[in-house]
UniProtKB/TrEMBL annotation, chains A, B:
This is LLM class flavin-dependent oxidoreductase. It holds the Pfam family Bac_luciferase. It comes from the Bacteria. Belongs to the NtaA/SnaA/DszA monooxygenase family. It comes from Aminobacter anthyllidis. CDD domains: Nitrilotriacetate_monoxgenase (cd01095). FMN binds at D56, T96, H146, Y150, S221. The lineage of its organism: Bacteria, Pseudomonadati, Pseudomonadota, Alphaproteobacteria, Hyphomicrobiales.
Length: 449, 449
């Protein structure tokens, strides 16, 4: 089959752009409106998106109390997605959850539940939850350092996968006549004892419909890339230009091969924030309209928040340059990206936050449907992307524009599906269902007999 | 308004009776069927139940690997209830969650999310999660002892409530014109630092629709009663006869008054397992039919599991008495209850598990709708109950019987609603919406000026 673009939809109810909630066409209470999230999910499904994706914070986040920010409060992602599952039929749900502040048993369980409830449409975006603000909600003064967080993440992901495999697919017999509900030979303790966790198992949920919910990762640091190459099946990433995306793409695919994995089974999906118009001028007008709605204090808080509270630029002149500051244990990749954008464009603080406010570091495309499709096609055909995570700057308008204008253009070019290929997220992404090692070893034993 | 009976529906998809899944009318895969849980929720709502209630374990539980047990694997309750919320309009959802193995921030957040998603229909059944089997899924060899679990539970509940109150009800301004999204004066750190938790806050979810999801408790030990008197608004409890239920009811109401709380705002709801027929003989036949379906090894595993793994009676003759065993740090109230039933009826092991299998220690009523209503009315009018948690022994049959036969009888007697009184669980239960202490202190200050 011809290789086609995969699409995620990043749809925080309050919108991606920091001023999205002030847009005349956006509901100001979208972040906490279930009805609005339902509308977004249905639109994404109409657009044949692979998945609805939600980031997550375990604190109010983004610079604290000042200013206006629709992302400051919303729904816990798995709870929200569970509620959206029965209202949709094909759309996948990729929820972010933390390896630093959640236990493997609890996490494995809620994602397995979501996968069953949605008939195989769950994905887990693995994050290590940077920031001291979050640490202080979980009995700590400071976050664990970067390397520790990633060591814990590796062990956590392995433990969660082992729990998902603790029941074999055919463990349940449910024979009313004999009273045998399950086959004790097909349920397994995992007996995990590691540096960070001790978990006996088995899980109290049957093996997920997809075997494992799709494992997603987004870190771009060295530790993040290592974790992604080891365990991720979808990688979200942020790049400002083709060359940067290509470097990342080629590096990850090489690491995946070095791990003995199949590179086609690791999909790299850069974030893209599209402003789409019937003409380029119309698209530009949409961009300008949103930019004008940014309050300066919100812009400054955004930069600070994105860098994990490590870029404190309050007090510096808005029309001067970004001050230098030391690298910390915060979100290294984000700090570097912000600095790179400022240097590349020689931006003042104001220009920087205006640029970043659009898509928080992701690639922004302003143009007609043809122009947007051209850009996506270029990245897709030149080792920069297997698909894209679409971050509509405001909602529902920019999502509707993408679905109504860009999706048909991609379909005309044969670059995107015209109907869902399968029932599960994994089937639509073209990812294999993980084999269960317990089942494999039983089959090998039987074959050897 | 006349005092009326409140009703919870305890509906594990696999059924309450240990052999429920073998019933010819029950789906053998009900425990993991979302479609079946949806049917149950809709039936409970048709019956005007206040809430759908789910217990929970953080391990496969109930005696390990032997035998057939539909409760061994299912959905995580909050995830399941979130999915049921958009498919229902009035039914409340009381989910069990652990103060021993979950963090206050995470727990506060998922229940606040469920409360928003369901428009105010969430309840939290507070449990301390007994058993070493569970401890071993969470980095421990043994469970914390009983007193420690309860001390942690008290601090946990207080912390969760403080997080729910960290945003005042009117904190969100969402003024598109000025760009003010919220009022910084109306969001508060909680700055909790206690023996078990340190949580700064605020929560990243707005204050729940109900102020607080309804807080439910079920412990019957001394520690459990103290916790319930301090913080519970609904108390589930297990009693085999009127005198025992009365003792509990009077004791709790006295403790509630001693805490300075209003006794009418703490609803005591004993569990009842009804076998209902058009005649008593028909009801009796339903009881016998289920009892015949119990496999002996399942009955033994059930007794052991109910006592938290502390009543190991494997190897003892089934037609002999229950052996004596030392009281342990397990679920004290359950062990005592099992012993009490055995002594009271002079039961053999087989007779004991047949009795317990029906409702796992709850009160069983076998009779016509009139007889069942008579029993409920007697308890309701004699300081034994403010309502009942109905545990249909098999599903959907015993739930349908209750809704179709007993509910109309209770309505005829004026003992039960004929339509939901309100929109939220709290409104239907007749419980006040908790005031926010931050809002109260602001009002007092303003009044004093």
């Amino acid at each position: 089959m011809t290789r086609q673009i995969k699409l995620g939809a990043f749809l925080p109810g309050g919108g991606q752009h920091i001023a999205a909630w002030r847009h005349p066409g956006s509901p100001a209470d979208g972040a906490t409106s279930f009805a609005f999230h339902t509308e977004l999910a249905r639109t994404a499904e109409r657009g044949l998106f692979d998945a609805y994706f939600l980031a997550d914070n375990l604190s109010v986040g983004l610079g604290g109390r000042e200013g206006g920010n629709a992302k400051i409060a919303g729904f816990e992602p798995v709870t929200l997605f569970a509620a959206l599952a029965p209202l949709t039929t094909h759309l996948g749900f990729i929820a972010t959850a933390s390896t630093t502040y959640e236990e493997p048993y609890t996490l494995a369980r809620k994602f397995a539940s979501l996968d069953h409830l949605s008939n195989g449409r769950a994905g887990w975006n693995v994050v290590t939850s940077a920031g001291d603000e979050t640490a202080r909600n979980f009995n700590r003064n400071k976050q664990p350092d970067h390397a520790d967080r990633y060591a814990r993440a590796r062990e956590h992901v392995d433990t969660v996968k082992a729990l998902w495999d603790s029941w074999e697919d055919d463990a349940f017999i449910r024979d009313k006549q004999t009273g045998r509900f399950y086959d004790p030979a097909k349920v397994h303790d995992i007996d995990h004892k590691g540096a960070h966790f001790a978990v006996k198992g088995p899980l109290n949920v049957p093996r997920p419909v997809q075997g494992h919910p799709v494992v997603v990762q987004a870190g771009q640091s060295e530790d993040g890339r290592r974790l992604a190459a080891l365990s991720a099946e979808v990688i979200f990433t942020a790049h400002q230009n083709l060359a940067s995306a290509q470097e990342f793409y080629r590096d990850i695919k090489a690491r995946v091969i070095a791990e003995g994995r199949v590179p086609e089974h690791v999909l790299i999906m850069p974030g893209v924030a599209p402003f789409v118009g019937r003409t380029e001028a119309e698209a530009r007008a949409k961009y300008d309209k949103l930019t004008e709605l940014i309050l300066p204090e919100d812009g400054v808080a955004l930069l600070n928040g994105l860098a994990g509270g490590t870029l404190d630029i309050r007090g510096y002149p808005l029309d001067g340059p970004l001050p230098k500051s030391a690298e910390t244990e915060g979100m290294k990749s984000r700090q570097a990206l912000i600095r790179q954008i400022a240097d590349e464009h020689n931006f003042t603080i104001r220009e920087l936050y205006q640029w970043i406010a659009t898509a928080r570091g992701h690639y922004t495309i302003v143009g007609s449907a043809t122009q947007v499709a051209d850009q996506l096609e270029e990245w897709f055909h030149n080792e920069a992307a297997d698909g894209f995570n679409i971050l509509p700057p405001w909602l529902p308008g920019a999502l509707n524009d993408f679905v109504d204008l860009v999706v048909p253009e991609l379909q005309r070019r044969g670059l995107f599906r015209t109907a869902y290929e399968g029932r599960t997220l994994r089937e639509n992404l073209g990812l294999p269902r993980p084999v269960n090692p317990w089942t494999v070893s039983r089959s090998s034993l039987q074959a050897a007999e």
